[in-house]
Amino acid sequence: MNNDLIELQEMKMKGTPYFSENKWVSPLNFMKEIPFNKFPERVKIHDVTLRDGEQTCGLVWREDERVYIAESLSDLGVDRIEVGMPVISDENMRAIKRLTSMNLKSEIVAFCRALRKDIDAAYDSGANRIIVEHAVNPYVNKFVYNSSAEEVISKVVENILYAKDKNMRVIFMGWDTTRSNLDYVLKVFSEIARKASPESVVFVDSFGVATPFSIKFVFEQLRKVISDSIELEFHVHNEFGLAMGSVLAAIVGGACTIHSSMNSLGERTGNVATEQVVVALKILLNINTGVDLTKLWRVSKLIQDISKTSPGYNSPVIGEKLFWVESGIVVAALRKLNAKGIQSAMTPYMPKLVGRDGPEVKLGAFSGKSSVKLFLEAKNISVRNEEFEKIVDKIQYEGRIRKAVLEESEILRIIYEVIG
């Protein structure tokens, strides 16, 4: 920790879980009144970039891309990689076969419907862990699958047992569960768990329509009716921007594995983002996921380049402009707090924790004297007071006209125009 930190009597900083040389987050997260004891020390990451992420409209992973991304995700440190459905195409099959022969650190998972042909294809691919999925919603099951709850249970159990007879490790995923009523959900999940004993079950908010309060409650109820030997997992989409909150709620309720996708790839608004989950858990709550945060930016950029899909410029963790600072007031505060030993002054964590550069001070319409002074110092340029005032005015004017932060060449042009 920086020895220059001046600690105030009103709030302890040194040695606390909310402050370090590289972060400053909320002490409220660690109050004894918060159910912190319900959070586990370790949460597993089941990355779905290559399967559910491919359901991003217009996106297709080719075989080599699928393999290369999977290798990068394994290097990142995710526990499992859901590669795709081997029954869908020869390319998928070849990719999964290649990956299962590589002895990667991450476990390779194949995705199956509750159909024997899907399970046979997964077995042929070499994947030793599979997901068997089915809707857990009375209306979907009646009008799409023409099945009652009892028929769904029977079908899923039969296929899980079939896969287990082939020595495959099985996860049951029940989708569209949050638009079903609780009694139906508990009946289907508990009966499948009791009769087939999959290693884990996945509760899925397919359309992001449950609040975090509901998610916590449902997981608590699932834990009551499902044996402790069967793990609970959570898969969520982000229709209302609640996905990350629902993840935390699910973990408090008993989930030990989170399904997520890099860059939030996935249908519609996408899945909860892998980078957001692992950074939030580690930095806000000191929960380990096994993921190397410093590699997130590199893997994110790789997937952006291959998918030709970029997240918002201000997206958490990976937004292109996330660590840019333009406001003169913010830069002034940043410099003053840095001088007192607080490095993560105007961001919750230092960019280097997630493999990023910065913070970067940018000059434009809202830049103040502190920002311009910082630029001049960095370039070792001396100016007189009256010249300095003109430079600040011209930079602000140029930024308003352009409606953008200025490139370094433009800033230097302004400076040299003023000082001759």
Primary descriptors:
420 residues; alpha/beta; two-stranded antiparallel sheet; 14 helices; 12 strands
What's the helix and strand layout?
Blueprint: E1 19-20, E2 23-24, E3 44-47, H1 63-76, E4 80-84, H2 90-100, E5 107-113, H3 116-125, E6 129-135, H4 138-143, H5 149-165, E7 169-175, H6 182-196, E8 200-205, H7 212-225, E9 231-236, H8 243-253, E10 257-260, H9 274-285, H10 296-307, E11 324-325, H11 328-339, E12 360-361, H12 369-379, H13 385-402, H14 408-419
Give a brief outline of the structure.
This protein has 420 residues and is of the alpha/beta class.
What do you see in this structure?
The protein has 420 residues and is of the alpha/beta class. It has 2 domains: 269 residues, Aldolase class I (TIM Barrel, Alpha-Beta Barrel), CATH 3.20.20; 96 residues, no CATH class. It is built from 14 helices and 12 strands. α3 links the parallel β5 and β6. α5 packs parallel to α6 and α6 runs parallel beside α7. The longest helix has 18 residues. It is elongated and about 85 Å long. The model has no long low-confidence stretch (mean pLDDT 94).
Calculate the terminal CA-CA distance, rounded to whole Å.
44 Å
* Name of the CATH architecture of the largest domain: Alpha-Beta Barrel
β-sheet strand percentage: 5-15%
What is the CATH level 1 assignment of the largest domain?
Answer: Alpha Beta
Number of helices: 14
What's the helical proportion of residues? 40-55%
How many structurally independent domains?
A: 2
Order of helices and strands: EEEHEHEHEHHEHEHEHEHHEHEHHH
Output mean pLDDT.
94
